[in-house]
Structure formats: C-alpha cells, structure tokens
Amino acid sequence: MERLLFRDFLDFGQWVYSMAESARENGEDRVAIAYIIVTILLSWISIESFVNNMLEDFVALPHDMFTVHERGFLLEKAVEFSTTGGTAGEFCLTNRSDYKRLEDKIMFLVAKFGGGTKLDKGGPLWQKFEALEENRNVLSHPRRSHDLDLSLGAASDALEIARAVIDLLADKVWGKPAHW
Amino acid sequence: MEIVFGEKATEDQRVRDEVQTFLREVETLEKRLGAPIVIYQDGPMGSYYIKCSIPASDVCPLLDLDARLDPASPDSYRANRELLLAHHTYKRMRQDAERGREFNDIIVEFSKEYSLDKPLKVWGGQHRVKAIQEAFQSTAISRLHGFRIYFRLSKEQRTELALISNTNIAVSNDLFDRLQEETLVGTGLRDWCCRIGLLKPEEDFPDRAAGAERITVKRARTFIVGFFEGRVKGASLAEEQLEENIYEPSLCESGPSLDPKYADLVEKYGSKIWTDEGLLQAGKAFAEPHEAQRASVKSNPAISNRKSFQNKALTESVLAGWSYVAGLLQAHPQRLANHLRIPKVTRSIPDPLNAKEMSTFQHQTDQRTYRGLATRSSLKERQRMAQVFLARSRESGLALKRELLDQGVSQVVSQIWRRKGYSK
To answer: Does the reported pTM lie above 0.80?
Structure first.
C-alpha cells in the first residue's frame, strides 16, 4: 500500500499543471482543460490530506485529553445527548458519521492548537482559499447553471493556495515550516 | 649487560629483574652488540618499557596476537581488533615484509602469566606482526624489527596501551567500549548477554558494529540503562497515565570514557545488576523477537533478505524503545506480559517487527529524505519506537501492524503540539 502525503499530491498537481501548460501551447485546449481540472482537485486533496492527518494525530491521544465534542470533531462522529442507560444526561460519542467542512477543520486546528492565535478570515489568503473551495465544489458537484473557471491561472492559483494554507497550518500548529 | 633507567623513570628493582629475564630469553640486537638498555617510564600511566630490535626468526614464534586485558581471567576479552587480512593495506604490508621491509614501534608486553611459549603479547601493530610472521614463514626472510617492550603492566595500563596503540589505525568506538567495559566494569555485561541469548557462549562483543550482526557493548548498555530509566518512570505512573507522556529512552555514548548513566547504574547496583530478575526476563524476551525476526527474514522469500531487516531488533531506536517500555511496564504486569510476547506474524506481516512497513513509514512532519521508522538512532526515533511498543502492549497478541506504527508516532507528535499550543 502506498503512503501518500500532502506533498505527494501537490507534486502530482504540479506535474499535471505542467502538462496543462504544454497542451495549451500545442493548441490542445480540451486536453489542457482535463489537466487543469485534475490540478485543482489535487491541490484541494493536498490540503485535505494534510488537515485530516493532523486531526488523526490528535485522535491517537488518550480520550480524556479532549472534551467529547472535541473528540467528535476530531473523529468526524456525531455527539448526542444521551437520555437512557448509564450515560443518561451526558453527551456521548456515537458511531454516526458527521463530516466537517475543510474550512471548519482548519479553524478548529488553529483555534485549539495555534497557541491562542486566530485565523484572519478577512485576509487575502482566506479569501483565495474560499474561492478555491468554491471552484472545487463546482467541479465536484457540476451543474450546467454553475460557472467553471478552468483557466491556467485558476490551476496555478490552486497550487499556490494549497501550499500557503499548509504552510500556515504547519506554522500555527507545529510551530515550524512544512517539509516540502 | 648494562641496564639503566631513563632520566624520567623512577628506579624499580622488580622492573629491572623483569627486563633481565626478557634479555636472557630473547635474542635482541642490543644484546648481541653489548649496547646498554634504557628503561623508560611513560608519563600519564607510569608504564615501564624498553626499545629494542629483534630479528624475525627469533621474534616470530614468541608473538601472541591474543593478548588479554586480564591475564588471570580466561573470560577476558580479546582486546585487539579483528585482523583485516583481506584489506588491501594489509596485502601491501605483507608484500613489503616479503621484500625485506623492517617495521618499527611495534608495541608488545613481556608477560608469562598465560601462553608461556608466547611471552610477547601484541598490543599495537598486530597487522605488522602478522605480515612479518607470514612473510617469514613463506620466504624465510629475517629482518630486524623495532619493538617497544612493556613490563609489569596493570590492567588499566594495558587498556590505555591498547587504546593509544590503535589510534593511528582508526580504532572504532566499539573497540573502545569493549576495552573500557572489561577494565572498568568487568565481564558482567558480556556474561549477561550470553545468559539472555544475545551472545553465544564464548562469543565476544564485536569491535565494529557495522556488519557484525550481534549486539555491541554500546547497545547492551543502552538496553540496561533504558530498562532502569523506564522502571523508575513506570513506578510513578498509574496505568491510565501511561499514554499521557512522551518517553525519552537514552542512548549510551560510545568512546574513551564510560557512559555516565551506565556508570551510575553500575555503581548503584554493583554486580546485583546482572541478576536483576526483571532485567533478565526482559533481556530474554528481547532476544526472542530478535531471533524470530532473523529467522523470518532469512527463511521467507517474500521478504527481501536484507541484513537491516534481519537485525531490525538490534537497531538502536528499536532496542532502546523496547527496553524502556519493558522497564516502564514492570509496575503494570498485564501490559508487561503483552509487551514481552513476540509480535504476531500474519500473511501480510511475515516478520515480527514488520521491517518493510517500518522502512516505508513516513509521517507528514518528516522530511522527504526520512528513511523510515527506526533506521536512525535519534531521540525522535527512540521516542517513536517506545510509543509504538507501548501502544502494542494495550492488547494481547497484536502484530506490529501499520495502524500501530501510525498510532505510536501520532501520539508522540500530537503530545508535543498539544503541550505547545492547546487552548481550552
């Protein structure tokens, strides 16, 4: 089984992006679009991979180091108020999946493990991240009424944003740069 | 024949008598010419010696390459390095000897305390001695060779002599360790390794770790220090607190002086350390997965027959992490029993230590150049391996599967981050 890390996905993205550029130079526009779509998705996957693995590291800690809600967040499992049995009157972790949005996971990690710092949601990086999220959502759930930005610029922005978000998280949580 | 003490040497009748005995029994150039013999005394250790020249025909049968640090003990280590007879430098040396090269400053001790027929115990220049002997045997060429002959050496003086004599041939730290161990501690460590099965009877610690495939002095000391460190720590923790810490198994230092943590332990426990029941049990239990690992890798064609895979248990981070956890769990018997059991093998995990999975392991905090879990001996690796073994001890009969490796490493990294920046 392969072990793929965030940097592998971004390497693949970079590689595919260079193929998109070549295709565009050769006038193969439809081929270029295919590569651009893959670049955007790989950039997103790279952030997802980084964030999910970071959450998983915390899951390995003993249960009582976090509140039940924090643990539910880390595991992406629903927390419910129990009304029966020995846990009646307590919040309990269930086996039901409760998937979180990537941006929420990032906010959680920075808020809990960023040493008291907060995300600047009005800043340019977060704005770009939200634009990438929008583009990725449109690609993952396409509708004819949605506009798609499939330019080379959108692909190169996606790579750049992924790198910047990962760097930001590494700095806030690890206190050191990510190894690219 | 005139025998005088040098300007810096203190007169000693017993040394003089010993020198006279030597001169009676060995044909030297000085004796033949009637030249005076000067007895020198070394500054740092006060060892007495003379300088003289002896023809190969006379000296060859008298030279003993199996010099002992402790002449009285048959258990004493072989103090010298293994001879590298296939090395091109040695081959060149031998060719030179056959062409009549005269070698100088060969360091020997005159002693009849053992191997009476070979009273010249070689401490420095064993390759030159071997070259002289072989050349004499094959060509009968007998040239004059220069010797420094030491007399009435103590064990400490002998150790020092062995170390300084070997400096110019890049003596390994492992040889330093071996010599220091016997001189300052004794043969307890080696006997203990034999008892638990990490050394065979009559086997010695290697003088170079690389390629030796058996435990070195440094690693054996690391095992013992780790065990006792873990035992102290574990005694202060309730079972539910075990996973709440990052552990730092020590790695003993090699080299000319005894590792301070090991020295403290030896001083504190004395010879009782070698009969400590918990340590013995841990040692024996450690030797088992080591043997099982070797056997699995050797016999299973699905595993690449790499030496590093075979000897995975002896890598410093695995050994240090394993022994630390064995000590840590002394106060937690059920988890200790889980830890001491050989990790299970399965169809997908054919060797107990799952060496291939370890070799491809990489955490996202690691650099691209990271070569896999437990390939290095750094503190980070020792911490990781301790946590992996601790995670495995939570249940009985677990294989060292990928999830456990992930879990152990995740615990180490996330504890560090959590301590650094967790906000309630």
So the answer is: no
